[in-house]
Design brief:
This protein is α/β, with parallel strands linked by helices and 351 residues long. 35% of the residues lie in helices and 14% in strands. The protein is built from ten helices and 13 strands. The strands form four sheets. The chain has a five-stranded mixed sheet with strand order 2-8-7-6-5, with helices on both faces. A four-stranded antiparallel sheet has the order 9-10-13-12, with helices on one face. It is globular. The protein starts with 25 loop residues before the first strand and ends with a helix.
């Protein structure tokens, strides 16, 4: 090894879901929304003035911050935005998890958490989900440097109730607790009201799932103004111009279109419940997902075998090789027609 290599920050990177691009494929592997963004987003794209891109965007992201604050009935000082919720979460890790004590998160959860912790040299402990893949709030009571977990959890899709979340936050007042709500709009109740009571709570959401804007990279955190202020201090020390002019405009348009938002997420939830019924008939079992995906295992056929059979038909779902979940498939909810095609294939393959 050359001398300079001994000083390299070596990490095992996060592996994102496969992004195939094939004619006629059905892509159910990365929890994208099957419907386009709001028509207001399309309108702005069509009328966008390219000449404006020569100018820097607003470093305060005021247009989008104000729109998010207005939507949730918050002060703009209580909102932080970033380039997707991954960027927001990374900033949170960098800003708040600095005590030298281990942070806590579940053993089966969003697989970026341990990557950020390793990259930033943050010690961590994973807390095992129970036999039903539920987070046990009592596991998060020991001395720690911070807590982060998704709700609903990923990849399980299981929702934790607000009483349990409050129990974790209330018993960890000396550290920052982060609730990652990437999928909260598909049937869950947000922990956001708890931020009025607890100044150590941050709630993170995204435009990628329920607002159909994964390709635009828009995420945000909400919490006590002091927490948001610290986040902005780190952001401005890292990259002052995180959001493009176009992203700010499109995000603002998307969050203002409540009617379209409600229509599309309702369709996804209805299709999810229909798909649950069909999968049960085919011998699958799964928790009660409140997300835009189903995390399912089959009573007879190994998950990897089903995964490969689907792949050959250009139907893409997600399979994880991790020990406790290697016999599960994470199936994103597509359009009703896409899910009918999935079920039709599975019926012929399994029965």
């Amino acid at each position: 090894m050359r001398n300079w290599e001994s000083y390299v920050r070596k990490v095992v990177p996060y592996v994102p879901g496969e992004q195939p691009n094939e004619q006629g494929m059905i892509k159910l592997n990365t929890n994208e929304n099957p419907y386009p963004p709001s028509p207001e987003v399309a309108r702005i794209l069509q009328s966008s003035d390219a000449d404006r891109l020569r100018l820097y965007p607003d470093p305060n992201c005021g247009m989008l911050v104000d729109a998010i604050a207005d939507y949730y009935g918050k002060s703009s000082s209580e909102v932080f935005v970033g380039v997707g919720s991954d960027d927001v979460l990374a900033m949170i890790f960098l800003t708040f998890f600095c005590s030298g004590k281990p942070i806590f998160f579940p053993d089966i959860t969003y697989s970026f958490y341990d990557v950020w912790a390793d990259m930033l040299r943050i010690p961590y402990e994973t807390k095992a989900l129970d036999e039903h893949f539920l987070i046990r709030s009592e596991d998060y009571l020991g001395e720690n440097g911070g807590i982060v977990f998704p709700n609903p959890n990923a990849p399980t899709g299981i929702l934790m109730g607000l009483a349990e979340i409050e129990s974790i936050v209330a018993k960890n007042r000396d550290v920052v607790v982060v609730v990652d709500e990437a999928y909260i709009d598909f049937g869950g109740e947000s922990a956001l009201p708890l931020t009025e009571k607890y100044d150590n709570l941050l709630v993170v959401q995204t435009f990628s799932k329920s607002r159909s804007m994964a390709g635009m990279r828009l995420g945000y955190a909400m919490g006590n103004a002091k927490l948001i202020g610290y986040l902005n201090d780190v952001k401005y020390s890292f990259n002052s111009y995180t959001m493009s002019r176009l992203a700010l405009e499109l995000g603002t348009a998307a969050i203002k279109d409540q009617e379209y938002f409600d229509q599309t997420r309702q369709k996804i939830m209805e299709t999810r419940e229909w798909t649950k019924e069909r999968l049960r008939e085919l011998g699958f079992s799964f928790g009660d997902s409140k997300s835009n995906f189903i995390f399912a295992t089959h009573e007879r056929i190994p998950a990897e075998e089903i995964f490969e059979a689907l792949r050959k038909k250009k139907i893409y779902v997600r399979h994880f090789s991790k020990e406790r979940i290697r016999d599960y498939l994470r199936i994103s909810i597509g359009t009703k027609e896409e899910m009918e095609t999935l079920i039709e294939f599975l019926r012929g393959y399994l029965l």
